Amino acid sequence: MTTRCRTRLLVAAGLLAAFGGCVTSQISFEKGGVSAADRQRDENACLRVAIGADITRQLLAPYRIDRNAFIECMERRGYTAKRE
């Protein structure tokens, strides 16, 4: 993955985190035996699914994040969603 692509993923992840605070409940994901790096890689992959766009072509463009699609993607990867 190129530095440019990583930067765009970080921007998108930041947007997800920023807009996640706008909802009434926060969600964390748990999966035994998973490193922080693996969880971040899975979250980034699911974020791309939830955005439904090729984020490598857009930088700082507004994204519509499908929260349910993100949760379903993480659950398909074996994580348990924990609502706080």
Mean pLDDT: 76
Q: Determine Rg (CA atoms, Å).
A: 13 Å
Largest sheet: 2 strands, antiparallel
Structural domains: how many: 1
Regions with pLDDT < 50 over 5+ consecutive residues? Answer: none
Helix content: 40-55%
List the total number of helices.
3
Question: Biggest sheet: strands side by side, in what order?
Answer: 1-2
What's the total number of strands? 2
Oligomeric category? single chain
Give the percentage of residues in beta strands: 5-15%
Shape call: globular
The helix-strand sequence is: HEHHE
Q: From the helix content, strand content and strand pairing, which structural class follows?
A: mainly alpha
In angstroms, what separates the terminal alpha carbons?
33 Å
